Amino acid sequence: MSDIDEIISNAADIASDMAIDEINRTTKEAHTYDKKPVNTGYYSHKFIDLNDKAKEVLAKVYLIRRDSYKKPEWADLYKDWMIATDRKYHNQGEGLKELKTMAVYYFEKIKQKQDSLVKKDTRMPGFNSLKDYAQHELRRRTDIEYDY
């Protein structure tokens, strides 16, 4: 009986090793990424996997965004951008113009928090935002001593 138990034990060990190897192999295959940007139709998805170096380049571009393209800083920043993103965005759009657009979009839409993007609602005179108006309405309807 000990030989049969040993055979079963060895078979179980081999099967478990094969299962673990298969799981590791499929996991490694699942984490391979294409170098192309995510094209989901949303412009903000281009920024999902940017590294810190690419974000630094976007910050520098944002600071000089109003300067002429004839300045030598643009060439250096575009070179740094291609290196930081591994040429992922190189064949898209118009090069520098696309880089500048991405920098402005990143720092004016993504980097800022949603609360700072709340705009003044012109339909509600006397309130700076919908948030202020909602707070006013909530307090007006719940606080009997609130004088508006």
Helix and strand arrangement:
Elements lengths: L1 H29 L21 H12 L8 H13 L11 H15 L19 H13 L6
Helix pairs in contact: 2-3, 2-4
Q: What are the salient characteristics of this protein?
A:
mainly alpha, flat, 5 helices, 148 residues
Summary of the model, kept short:
This protein has 148 residues and is mainly α. Helix content is 55%, strand content 0%.
Low-confidence stretches: 114-121
Rg, Cα atoms, Å: 28 Å
State the shape: flat
* Residues in helices, as a percent range: 55-70%
Summarize the helix and strand pattern as letters.
HHHHH
Distance between the termini: 90 Å
Largest pleated sheet: none
Please tell me the overall pLDDT: 75
Number of strands: 0
Broad structural category: mainly alpha
What's the structural domain tally?
3
